[in-house]
Amino acid sequence: MLCGVQIRAARGALHWSADDLAVQSGVASRTIVRLEQHDGLPPSRSSTLMDLRRAFEAAGIEFIGGPDDAPGIRVHAPRAAT
Predict the structure, then answer these.
(1) What global pTM score does this model have?
(2) Which residues contact 3 (CB under 8 A, 6 or more apart)?
(3) Which of 7, 12, 18, 49 is deepest in the core (most CB within 10 A)?
């Protein structure tokens, strides 16, 4: 699962605004801002977090650690469209 600090870090690494992420993930920008306010696991539907994760992973973000285990990201080249 994603935690708020990972969402903030991934968005920053990609230089995406909340609106950019909203377009890429289909999650409302207000929801994104709300989720980012939590350092740990944000209260949300798991499907919402998975939508964010898929958008980030398609853009080359790898999530490492977890809410209780040094959460972070790695940045890779974006995946090629299939």
Answers:
(1) 0.89
(2) 38, 39, 40, 41, 42, 66, 67, 71
(3) 7
* Rg of the chain on CA atoms, in Å: 12
Q: What is the pLDDT along the chain (82 residues), one digit of tens a residue?
A: 899 999 999 999 999 999 999 999 999 999 999 999 988 888 888 899 999 999 999 999 999 998 888 999 999 988 766 5
- The answer to whether 6 and 68 have CB atoms below 8 angstroms apart is no
Record the tokens describing residue 2, joined without a space: 């994603």
Q: How far apart are CA 57 and CA 2, in angstroms?
A: 12
Tokens matching residue 30: 């207000």
44: tokens are: 């949300």
3-state SS assignment for residue 54? helix
